[in-house]
Design goal:
The protein is of the alpha+beta class. It has three domains: 74 residues, no CATH class; 37 residues, no CATH class; 33 residues. The protein has three helices and five strands. It has a three-stranded antiparallel sheet with strand order 3-2-4, with no helix packed on it. Strands 1-5 form a two-stranded antiparallel sheet. The protein is elongated. The chain starts with a strand and ends with a helix. Keywords: Cell wall, Membrane, Peptidoglycan-anchor, Secreted, Signal, Transmembrane, Transmembrane helix. It holds the Pfam family Gram_pos_anchor. InterPro entries: LPXTG_anchor (IPR019931).
């Protein structure tokens, strides 16, 4: 999770305080401008988490902030930490990132394979289409040449 000022007054943004909590645990409390949530939140598949975000104008701030406004954007990033189904990539080689993570004990990351096991059928059908196109091209060319066009 991160936050950045999107528009408005830097002066006003820099004075705001924020408190972010989840399930009764305070994840951050301090100036909004210094927000940094470095510990990732791990969720199981289908699990949800609700964050309570409170942004306050400090009571100690003076009148110089009147009529100022700012807009902040909170961004949430998600990553799939599921190990790939196999240690081979789509081209049949060794997935070195997966092997390196397995050796270091880090969580394995990767996307599931969603295409064909082998691209042979796609390549062959492409070649067949090109040959069919070439045959039609030369057939039409010879037919128009016979008619004198």
């Amino acid at each position: 999770m991160s936050v950045k000022k999107n528009s408005g007054s830097d002066k006003f943004y820099n004075v705001l305080d924020a408190k972010i909590s989840s399930q009764g645990e305070t994840l951050f409390s301090g100036p909004l401008k210094s927000f940094d949530l470095v510990n990732p939140r791990l969720l199981e598949k289908g699990q949800e988490e609700t964050f309570d975000i409170t942004v306050q104008f400090p009571m100690s701030a003076g009148n110089e902030y009147q009529k100022l406004r700012t807009e902040a954007v909170f961004s949430f990033q998600a990553a799939d930490l599921v190990a790939p189904a196999s240690d081979q990539d789509q081209m049949g080689g060794v997935n070195t990132a997966s092997n390196a993570n397995a050796q270091t004990g880090l969580p394995q990351t990767g996307l599931p394979q969603t295409g064909e096991e082998s691209p042979v059928t796609i390549v062959l059908s492409g070649i067949l289409m090109m040959l069919l196109g070439a045959v039609l091209f030369f057939y039409k060319k010879s037919a128009s040449h016979k008619l004198g066009r």
